[in-house]
């Protein structure tokens, strides 16, 4: 019997009203997430990568139901949750948690660390203060902090320590899925490595599944099992992380990979030309959203949107240049 994925997203969309005024006189719709489908297995790390403004954070909030989708399906442990109301979602909150990008803004400055870490427990059941304090101390030790930190306030900690507190808070209810929304982008590089290693250790310890969101494709391929690339609210490529830099096929993905700095000055990749700017999500072009910037665009790219098509095992690409056997049109 096939075990269903822990999280399965199908044709998910989130559109916001663009409003009216000088900058958006038409009062149209902002297509922040547009017809996205993917899955995350138990214990797996799926990395979602893309440039700023492509819809990654909106997708993160949809998955944990901080936002209600415009259309599409979100199945968690084979149960549809996309249309559930706040009360119906309560029992599921403990099974899915989110780590936010900014460790300075995600903690209430008026709460002690001990109170912040155990705050998610208040939505589950009544617990005595002593029991919450014991659990908070246990979670702080798990992420490398001390019991003495329980009564301190967020402003007394560094950025890396605050993110550890955020991780402890997310794990306090023993979730099965953790959505990490750019959890290391606000940290120094040396601290990033510490947090990533901690998250890997915690994944093994607690059997966590991660939806790991980042704009850094190097971090994603290092940390995750699979990589999903997002552009203008849509997924353009999904593949195994191992060897991703050499096997990626979409022109946008190749541009991202070519832009990653190399530690060895003797190893270089030829630059991949990218024209123009990302499209306005309130006025997406017809056809492939990347075609105005793509040096290999075909006529069909301007009027028909490609969908994700399997090209090699679990490798899927949304690109008209791909015929199922490789890239045509001179892309190599």
Automatic annotation (TrEMBL):
Pfam families found in the cross-reference section: ABC_tran, oligo_HPY
Signal peptide range in chain numbering: none
Keyword line: ATP-binding, Nucleotide-binding, Transport
Domain of life: Bacteria
Record-linked CDD domains: ABC_NikE_OppD_transporters
GO terms for MF: ATP binding; ATP hydrolysis activity
GO terms (BP aspect): peptide transport; transmembrane transport
Annotated ranges, domain ABC transporter: 7-257
UniProt-listed SUPFAM superfamilies: P-loop containing nucleoside triphosphate hydrolases
SMART domains xrefs: AAA
Assigned protein family: Belongs to the ABC transporter superfamily.
NCBIfam families linked: oligo_HPY
Name of the molecule in the record: Peptide ABC transporter ATP-binding protein
Organism: Desulfosarcina alkanivorans
Origin organism lineage: Bacteria, Pseudomonadati, Thermodesulfobacteriota, Desulfobacteria, Desulfobacterales
